[in-house]
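Supplementary Note 3. Input sequence used for the single-chain structure prediction.
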Amino acid sequence: MCCLTGDWEALASKFYLLRMEAFNQSKAQSFCSQAGGKLWEPKDNKTNFAVVNRFVKRVERYSRPFDTVWTGINDFDSEGK
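The predicted structure, written as discrete structure tokens, is reproduced below.
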């Protein structure tokens, strides 16, 4: 049950690691891989809402704002087209 300690959050029968560190996309992806996971990929509105709300509550506990959240989806191939 190591996932129940630290920054891991149980939501919708899965575990999410919410890190309050500044990473670029590549470093975030690498960090997740090294932690045995992957960047979050929202699959449905209910889970998306739950994860985003949990992140917002976590951010509210910190005194500095966060303006970037990395997910496992992107538009790199079509951006600007």
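Residues 1-5 have pLDDT under 50 and may be disordered. The helical segments are 25-34, 45-60.
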